[in-house]
């Protein structure tokens, strides 16, 4: 199984890392070449995932007047326990992610569980480069303690190409992992290599990705020296507006999940505002984030309400 890594401690570290930064990197360095939350003037309001074994997950998204994602309300039921959470995001003046707080609902009150903060941005492209995370552990609402530090050492356009992961141990940061990513000509990630080093144990895993014509994943294959390969295939369905409407994912041919996507026309979203302006000579990415200068990397960008493709 893809999340079993040596010990429960490493498993917790990996899950915490994904939990803290999954939404952050979706906002700051889209690996799919287009925003998860916006598509052709539409924005994602919510999604619901159900599985054959009774697993259930729901996320509801809230945006500010400029179209930036400000919070995510989540519910996750594993068949026995309902986990209710809330993430709250803040941004810097350039619209890049500044922080993300994760809360868990306990006795009717949302208590702070974890926090991730950007402490340094890249001079190359303004993207988050150093990200610190802290956690309350198993006691939501208690003092946050340092957990991990992520340092992006190389970018591929607005995507990360290489990063290092550090864990807070014995009062100092100890390198505990790394990731490297490769992309195709459309800016879609095609291979992700992850390494974990902890308490004398070391392992490396590799995940490869395939996509459909819309740029959404159709297959990912995970390989690790610790176990047999794991494969997930995705069948993507689209509505009349060409928005993703449902994804059926089959995990290793025996576990199936179905995720339903719900969209609405994005009133006041960043991209909508750019299109309406018509005379805005500044450059934006597909998330509606303003760029410091004309982009030189490959991808699709917006200027004066029109899309431009850098090849």
Distance between the termini: 38 Å
- The general outline is globular
What percent of the residues sit in helical stretches (DSSP H or I)? under 10%
Please give the CATH class: Mainly Beta
Explain what this protein looks like in three dimensions.
It contains 2 helices and 19 strands. With 311 residues, it is mostly beta strands. It has one domain (8-310): Lipocalin. Strand 18 and strand 19 (306-310) form a beta hairpin. The longest helix is centred in the first third of the chain and has 21 residues, at 8-28.
Question: What keywords describe this structure?
Answer:
311 residues, 16-stranded antiparallel β-barrel, two-stranded antiparallel sheet, Lipocalin, single chain, mainly beta, disordered N terminus, 2 helices
Short description:
This protein has 311 residues and is mostly beta strands. The chain has one domain (8-310): Lipocalin (Beta Barrel). The protein is 9% helix and 56% strand.
Helix/strand layout:
Blueprint lengths: L7 H21 L9 E2 L2 E10 L4 E8 L5 E9 L4 E10 L5 E10 L2 E13 L6 E8 L9 E12 L2 E11 L2 E12 L5 E10 L2 E11 L5 E8 L2 E12 L5 E8 L3 E11 L4 H8 L21 E5 L2 E5 L1
Antiparallel strand pairs: 1-2, 2-3, 2-17, 3-4, 4-5, 5-6, 6-7, 7-8, 8-9, 9-10, 10-11, 11-12, 12-13, 13-14, 14-15, 15-16, 16-17, 18-19
